[in-house]
Design a protein that fits this description.
The chain has 125 residues and is mainly β. The chain has no helices and eight strands.
Length: 125
Amino acid sequence: MSNFPVVRVERVDVRNESASKIDVWARIKNDSDRQVKVVSWEYLGNMRNESHTLNPGNTVDVMLYSGAPKNYPDQMYIRYEAEHDGGRHYFLARHQAKFDERYNNDTKWYRPSDWMEFQRVDRGN
């Protein structure tokens, strides 16, 4: 599938930040002209399989992670499903993440500060 739908992470928010926990949320927007389904994502070792259908122009907020990250894998993956040539097709968007170090009572943990999409991969039917 050479013609990926235009779906993007519009922004990433850290909510409910405390000394021991953060909740990381992403707003995903469908900028394509067809319906797209957000199928799953993986971030900071947390994989979630949830289904969110996005019509053209719609957005959805998804919780990517909740906890106190002790390491910082620098990639996040989102798997999408879209109709193509009369069938269902899957693609994967990889994102590069940047983190700020934080300390709580000499315990180091990480807070996401920025990221960008860097690759889309065709995952077939």
